[in-house]
Structure formats: structure tokens, C-alpha cells
Amino acid sequence: MLRVCFLGLIISLLMTSCSTPLKLNNQYRTNTMPDAEEAYKSQQVGVSSFSLPSFLSEQRIEHIKESKAAKIDASHIEVPARKVSAPTTIQVKYASLLNMLPGMLTNIRLLETIDEWYGTRYRYGGTTKSGIDCSAFVRAVYKVAFDIDLPRTAREQFRAAVLAVSNLQTGDLLFFNTSGGISHVGMYLGNNKFVHASTSRGVIVSDLDENYYAARYLGARRMREPDSYAVN
Fold first, then answer.
1. Helices (H), the chain
2. Which tens digit of pLDDT belongs to each residue from 144-191?
3. Phi and psi dihedrals of 121, rounded to 5?
């Protein structure tokens, strides 16, 4: 009987000790629940007070404001005018003679030098404005425009200009057989045109396709490399 009572007492004590933490846990949970619920409710209030449509509307308004601020009134933009130089009188004149655009004629010094002699009458052996022959004319122009000293006669100039060319460029020497062998020289200007001292018309611009010159054309020679003729 005593054993039974003692056993019952032990069981009662054990049950009491086990139930205490449960109460503490329940108490802890009971004490902490209001704070958690309040935090949750505050979050709900925050979310409910935040209106998605109004937020999007505000963002749209801000975007419109930024776009307006970034928009530039084209009427107030000052664009610097592109500087386009008007062609000179000399360019216009020789553009007409060569059937080219004035802007394509860039070596103004060459044109001005040629123009000083343009129309000068032909005189065999002549070297002045009162009369000049073909080789003397080319020699005079080369000295001023390119600072190159050419030999005096057409044959000598042919031998000095050892670089034979087929792709003609301004300044190339053109040689013709007009009276046996290399007997006439001119200077290429562009668009199949060349300037020379013609025996019948003096210093003039002619076309390589003219029957007279086409039949007597011997070829072209260059004094320097292709890019060496100065553009002034």
C-alpha cells in the first residue's frame, strides 16, 4: 500500500513538472501574439493605404514631366551653317572650258598660271607673251605651278618624264607626232582635255578625242609619282 502511494506521489510530481513548460509556452505564445498581430495589421493597413492605380498614375505623371523637360524646342536650336566657298572666277572659266564642275578644279595656282598665257599666239622658238611654242609654254607653267624645271624641247621633256602612264591626271605631259617623231607636247587638265600652244590657235584647251590629236597621240608621261603634283 505504501509503495502504491509512493508511486502515485512520484507520478503526480512528474506530471506537475511536465505541465509547467507547457504553461510557459502557452503564456509566451499568448504574450507574443498581440505584437505579431499588430505588426501584421499595420502591414495590412500600409498595403491597403497604398493604391496601385494611384502609384502608376504618379509614375506616368513623373515620366511626362521628365519627357517635357528633356524635349528641345527645335525652333531655338542654332545649327552652324556649313561653309561652302563660292567658286572663283578662274574656276568658273576653266570649268566651262573643261566641261567640269568648278569645285572639281582644286589647283588654283595651276589654273592661274595657265590663264596668264591663255590666248598667247604661237611662235616657233618663242618663250614670251608675244609668242611661245608648245614646249616653252609647258616648261613655263611647270616651273610656276609645280616648281619643276623641264628641259626645253618636247623630245627632251619626253625623255625626262620617264614614268609612262595610261590613267591620266592633271599635270601629265601628253606627246604627239605632228611633224615627225615627238614634235608636240601639251598638259592634261582633266575630262579628256589638255592645254597646249597650238600652231594655229595659240595657247588653248583641246580635246584628246579631236580627230587631229587622236590620230597623232603618242602617249603620256609623268614627271613624278601619281600624288606628287602639288595642289595649291
1. 2-49, 52-70, 89-98, 108-117, 134-146, 154-160, 211-216
2. 999 999 999 999 999 999 899 999 999 999 999 999 999 999 999 999
3. -70, 155
**Residue 53 CB coordination number (10 Å):** 7
User: Is the C-alpha dihedral spanning 47, 52, 53, 54 positive or negative?
Assistant: positive
Cβ contacts of 155 within 8 Å, gap of 6 or more: 181, 182
**Nearest-angstrom CA–CA distance, 89 and 95:** 10
Q: How far apart are CA 19 and CA 13, in angstroms?
A: 10
Strand, helix or coil for residue 230: coil
CATH number for domain 89-222, candidates 3.40.309.10, 3.90.1720.10, 3.20.70.20, 3.40.800.20: 3.90.1720.10
pTM score: 0.63
Q: Which three cell numbers stand for residue 16?
A: 506537475
User: For residues 164 and 219, is the Cβ–Cβ distance under 8 A?
Assistant: yes
Active-site positions read 134, 184, 196
pLDDT digit string, tens, across residues 73-107:
545 555 555 666 899 999 999 999 999 999 999 99
Cell 600624288, located at residue: 227
DSSP secondary structure of 163-204: EEESS--TT-EEEE-SSSSS-EEEEEEETTEEEEEETTTEEE
Q: Which three cell numbers stand for residue 81?
A: 551653317
Could you tell me the end-to-end alpha-carbon distance of the chain, in angstroms, rounded to an integer? 137
The rounded distance, in Å, linking the Cα atoms of 48 and 42 is 10
